[in-house]
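Second opinion, please. Please look over this fold, written as tokens:

===
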Amino acid sequence: MTEMQVETRSLADLSCREFAAELAAKRSVPGGGGAAALAGALGVALCSMAGAFTTGKARYADVEDDIKRMMGEAEELRRTLVGLIEADAAAFEPLSRAYGIPKKDPARARVLEAATKTACSAPVEMMRACARSVELLEEMGEKGSRMLISDIGCGAALCSAALKAASLNVYVNTRTLADRAYAEDLEHEVDQLLDTYVPRSEALAARVSDHIRGGE
């Protein structure tokens, strides 16, 4: 696939093989941000999968409404995260153009600052979506079919990776911002999301591992 062909298609519409090839290519997008969003989307998709195999079963009739609620929210999160693949890529172009402005141009600093703030937006949104995905995976792990417990653990592991990967795409941009108050507020939120949800997602994956290996 040529670069021109890729540019006319949404990154989210590429096949798995095509997306991986584009990720490996010598071009700036997709990059780490897009990969983080995809990992998060896959993680919450596994929550939906567990729900789909739980609904309609008599054994889980008492939590049917909860399962359907979780599936609905998980679907929204999956769509959000898939959309953020493209949003992250779109934010790179103005940032790249801003860096290309001659340093003597008095507008450079202002344009670069605005573009850098925009570039922070998608990865922060990814983290927020992944944090909620972890909460849903925890609940689905408690209420969903035990036959899908390994998928819950896989979803948790993917969300943990997505959180950590997305955070790097925030930090790499906030470090250059002149507006330090804005940067520090954003970094504080990112730090809190990491400190809260990475341990929770990894604990869930560990509980699943213990369960399937006979530890509980």
